[in-house]
Amino acid sequence: MNRKNYKKIFMVSVLVLITLMVMKLTSLDRAEITPIEKGVKDTLAPVQKVTMGFAKGVQNVFSSITTYGKLTEENKNLKEEIRALKSKLNQVKEYKIQNQRLKQLLQYKENTVEQHQLLLARVIGRDPGNWFGTITLNRGAEDGVQKDMAVVVPEGLVGRVAVVSTHTAEVLLITDPRSGVGAVVQENQEPGVVEGVANSTGMVRMIHLKKDAPVEPGQEVISSGVGGIYPSGVRIGEITSAENDPGGLFKTAEVSPFVNFRTIRDVFIVTNVYKPKINLPLEGNQ
């Protein structure tokens, strides 16, 4: 249908509406209408029906557009509310995790108060190119931190302070190949040295074990205190495998650390180690 036909239909519709309005107005004060008016009404009834349907359709279209706009705006607002709620939920989860971790740290500090003096510190930096090499803490010389102080967490040994500035400290992790920790196998007290493994994902190994040392998977390794840097008795990891060195003089054991070095966030710096009091028997009271 071309534009002219639409124009004709529109003009006819307008004329029909005008005619009906005039007839309605002129018949208000009369009890009956004339036969001609009846005929016109009967003739125009189908046209009126189409016209009213067209008008109603146009009204429905505009109503649908308005409703769609409202629904779109409501949908946008709901999505924003959902995003805000998800953000708050994530914050609550993070606060819960932090609270649980702080409780664990506090409990560890209370349990070791007779052995160590501990200073809580937060990890504020890592080397992306050497993730298992060093970490940077938010404590420094101003907080009493000194070089070669041990760093621990409730799970076990982390490393030692290598570099100290006024407000920060760089820690060499036990997973770094440059690190060396005097250690023993807890079950049989076999001595050795724990060092980091190059190009590994946080593994360490225990070297300089006797070739006939009774070492096997599942045994735990702890620090021995030899060397004076690390306090004795701090958990290091669990032996996963052991084999003799190529030279045949020593045995090497692979050790899985108890500490998750990938996600470590809060640590303790051991600022002082208390020596256990040994009460010697007095002469004559043996």
How would you explain this protein's 3D organization?
The N and C termini lie far apart (123 Å). The model has no long low-confidence stretch (mean pLDDT 83). The chain has 2 helices and 12 strands. A hairpin with a 5-residue loop joins β10 and β11 (250-257). The strands form 2 sheets. It has a 6-stranded antiparallel barrel with strand order 1-2-5-4-3-12. It has a 6-stranded antiparallel barrel with strand order 6-7-8-11-10-9. The protein has 2 domains: 1-111; 117-273, Rod shape-determining protein MreC, domain 1 (Thrombin, subunit H). It has helices spanning 3-26, 35-111, and strands at residues 116-126, 134-137, 150-153, 156-164, 169-173, 180-185, 191-196, 204-210, 220-223, 235-244, 250-257, 266-273. With 286 residues, the protein is α+β, with helices and mostly antiparallel strands.
Helix content: 25-40%
For the sheet with most strands, the description reads: 6 strands, antiparallel, barrel
CATH superfamily of the largest domain: Rod shape-determining protein MreC, domain 1
Order of helices and strands: HHEEEEEEEEEEEE
Taken from the alpha-carbon principal axes, the silhouette is elongated
- Radius of gyration based on Cα positions: 43 Å
